[in-house]
Write a structure and sequence with these properties.
With 251 residues, the chain is mainly alpha-helical. Helix content is 65%, strand content 0%. The protein contains 13 helices and no strands. The chain has helices at 3-6, 8-11, 16-21, 39-42, 60-89, 94-100, 107-125, 132-154, 159-184, 188-197, 206-225, 228-232, 242-247.
Length: 251
């Protein structure tokens, strides 16, 4: 990607209010889950670890306490990431989505729909500077575990071929996140181009394209109104029925 491409978020964004809320979903994927620093738990001891500030180093008990807190906090976020994935894989109405947008009932269609909804969830999680990156990584990890499980059930290809296809899907997934990030931070023309090329596979009518753009905009807006605490701890995500989006379009 050239230098111009790396700066698209700033140069192409026309929705300033979204720029203040939205954080791109990609941001150097993948990042190992251990990158979640203990500093998110023990910032109070940061200065205490530096003799140059004249503070006393934490005691052994304090260090052990910090590690125990971090252990439980990390596993809480781990569970939250898998739950966020389940809210997509289990709660999105795939059948209605495929029917509304004339998508074939195939594994690839399932993946594209899942990818779109995961991107919207990840974008919301990335607004949390403390734990967003960690939860994002867990969600992506859950996706590929599910993909591998589902491909094993197909039993239609050799293992080597399946592995190669999954690697290709991984590359396309990361490219899609960039494309969707660019689209949501730009105007509807750019977003329409992104969904037309990716999830709609360049095959749709004008009404379907308009509905998809509206669905994405409304869902992003809804997710950013729900607090991260509600999403992670109260497990609150309610997907907008795609049929309602079509009904709201002008005739």
């Amino acid at each position: 990607m050239n230098q111009h491409g790396l700066k698209f978020v700033v140069k192409m964004s026309r929705n300033a209010h979204l720029r203040n809320l939205y954080r791109p979903a990609l941001l150097t994927l993948p990042i190992h889950r251990n990158e979640l620093s203990t500093s998110c738990i023990s910032n109070k001891n940061f200065l205490a670890r530096s003799d140059s500030y004249g503070y006393k180093k934490p005691s052994i008990v304090e260090n052990i306490t910090d590690k125990v807190k971090f252990y439980f906090y990390k596993h809480k976020l781990l569970a939250a990431g898998y739950y966020m994935y389940e809210r997509v894989a289990d709660d999105v109405d795939y059948a209605s989505f495929m029917k509304a947008f004339s998508m074939p009932d195939t594994f690839n269609s399932w993946f594209l729909i899942t990818e779109l909804h995961l991107w919207m969830v990840i974008a919301r999680m990335m607004a949390d500077p403390k734990s967003g990156r960690f939860i994002r990584n867990v969600i992506v990890e859950a996706l590929w575990k599910d993909v591998i499980t589902r491909t094993k059930k197909l039993e239609s290809e050799h293992a080597t071929v399946v592995k190669s296809q999954i690697m290709q899907m991984s590359e396309e997934f990361q490219a899609a996140l960039v494309t969707y990030d660019e689209g949501i931070l730009s105007d509807d023309t750019v977003l329409a181009s992104a969904v037309w090329r990716r999830i709609l596979s360049r095959q749709c009518d004008v009404r379907q394209l308009e509905a998809m753009v509206k669905y994405v905009r409304q869902t992003i807006f809804y997710l950013h109104k729900v607090s991260i605490e509600d999403m992670v701890y109260k497990k609150k995500i309610e997907w907008i029925p795609v049929n309602e989006v079509f009904k709201s379009l002008p005739p």
